[in-house]
Amino acid sequence: MIKFNLHLAMVVVPSLILFSACNSGNNDQSKSTAVLDTVSLSNKRFALAYQDGDKIVATSIDTMKQISFGGANHPAISPDGNKLAYTVKDSVGNNSIWVADMESKSQLHLQVNSKNYDDAVWSPNGGTIAFNFLNDQKIWKVGIIKADNTGFLVLDSKSAIAVSSPVWKTETELMAHDLKNIYTFNLNGKLMETNSIADLLGAAYHISASDRFFYAQNGKILVFNSKYGKAITELNDMANAVFTLDLNSRKIKRISPEGMNTSAVFVTADDRIFYSGAENPYTQSKIYVSDLEGNVKLLVNKGMNPTATLK
Which residues form the domain of 270? Predict the structure, then answer.
């Protein structure tokens, strides 16, 4: 187990405020501190978080203000932009989720009954966090916990099926999938709805465990990431792409450009689609934002695994 300490110092460069950080470890992971060198992060609106190599970055949407630190991955920014959940891997390879308050400078280690939990996702009002975790039977499940570190609950706890990649449908319901079906659960773990992925998408779209499904336009559109099309020589496989599915017409529209290989997608409550993708020779991933019509804008020249807040 490790103790994850952030030490953040302000570095000023032309038109950019960058907060860099480092981490140190010992055998106590139950406590964590953050020191910001008298630099207050209040009044600095963070709107996007992503991974850049071995560090994570939170930034304003114009990327003019940033905070970044190493030793963590899979960042998830809270809906209000004031907190950041992220994953830390310890010396024996186990993952755990921490939450940093970027205004008070505090850090919180989420207390989950598992040695391996990852991929935090905030509920729409920021009150609850969902995540993947490995249970005692070595089966991946979805857990939820309140942002104040109470109320840990396992969804679908009695099933032997592995479910993963949670996404919030509403403040009181969330979705996860097992490669065959998309399941909707309420916050008590009750199964509310089951939808066959094959029935929704057909056989041409190939879903992995890490792919996520998001509802947009008040539940009328499903946004997803999937392998599709002919194999690309440089990838030795089909490329991933971002798509939307109109649930009424069943029409599927491609959002990411042809030839791009996308690695992650995130949809905000105001229906903006953020995704990371790389073009040939597929060595550097960039971050883009699109609307539901496929009007795409480049945001970050190097990064992956984006999450974002409301405007």
Answer: 203-311
What residues does 122 pair with on adjacent strands?
A: 129
Give how many domains the chain has, as a whole number.
Answer: 1
Q: Tell me the pairing of strands 34-35 and 6-13.
A: parallel
The three-class DSSP label of residue 198 is helix
Contact residues for 93 (Cβ-Cβ < 8 A; gap 6+): none
State the Cα–Cα distance between residues 193 and 41, nearest whole angstrom. Answer: 41
Distance CA 47, CA 70 (A): 19
Average pLDDT over residues 297-302: 95
| pTM of this structure | 0.85
All residues at 6 or more sequence positions from 64 whose CB lies less than 8 Å from its CB, including other chains: 15, 16, 17
Give the pairing of strands 252-254 and 261-267: unpaired
By the 8 A CB rule, do 179 and 197 touch?
yes
Q: Does residue 310 sit within a domain? A: yes
The pLDDT of residue 22:
34
Q: What is the largest CA-CA distance in the chain?
A: 56
Q: By the 8 A CB rule, do 47 and 309 touch?
A: yes
d(CA 168, CA 90): 28
Alpha carbons 75 and 194: distance in angstroms, whole number: 29
Q: What is the pLDDT of residues 274-287, one digit of tens each?
A: 999 999 999 999 99
Q: Considering the domain boundaries, does residue 48 fall inside one? A: no
Q: By mean pLDDT, which of 2-6, 150-154, 189-193, 248-252 is the weakest?
A: 2-6
Domain membership of residue 269 (yes or no) is yes
